[in-house]
Structure formats: structure tokens, C-alpha cells
Amino acid sequence: MTDLIPLATGKLHDPILMDWALRRYRDARIGDSRRRQAMEQVGFDELTLRRWLDSDDHEALAHLFLELPAERFASLGQAIGERWGHWGGPLAAIRRG
Asked: In this structure, is residue 50 part of a structural domain?
């Protein structure tokens, strides 16, 4: 079967594709850590995450913050900090633990 994750690289700016990728990532989290790490690097790279930050789509951002490890956002700390005070609702209430 063809691995579709590499084909999604650079295309995860679409909410439908991002939702699909997050579901695949969630499924991989259950078992295969190598696949999960590959998905993090290929599908949830800094450029893709920055685009979602810039989109101001609070629902999508909340899903990204909940599903991905905090390390994926390390290089975006300043951008997240600048926006943090303007976020409301579920996005502002996210607590990692």
C-alpha cells in the first residue's frame, strides 16, 4: 500500500487534509513510534505549523496543540507567545500535562 503521508507534505494547509493527517498520526501513536516520528518530521514541519499559526484557525490550532508533542512547536515559541494573549475559547484553555 502506498504511504500517503509523504504525498501530503506541503499540502497540509487545507483543513480537510490536516484533519486526515492528524487522524493518521493519532493512529500511529498507538503503536509504531518510528512511523509517528517520521510523520512529525514530514507532515508537521515548522513551515506547516507556522502557516496554521498565521491562519488564526483556533479549532485547527487546538487540535494541533493537543495531538502533537510540544517539541514540534519549540521553534515557534516566540510566534505562539505573541498570539497567546489574543486566543480565546478552547485554544486558550489548552493545558499540556
From this structure: yes
Asked whether 61 and 29 are in contact (CB, 8 A), the reply is: no
Residue 97 lies in a domain: no
**Domain annotation covers residue 49:** yes
In a domain, 45, yes or no: yes
Tracing cell 507567545 back to the chain, one arrives at 81
| C-alpha of 95 from chain center | 16
Q: In this predicted model, what pLDDT tens digit does every residue of 41-57 receive, in sequence order? A: 888 889 889 999 998 78
Longest pairwise C-alpha distance within the chain:
44
Helices (H), 1-97: 5-8, 15-30, 33-43, 46-55, 58-67, 77-84, 89-93
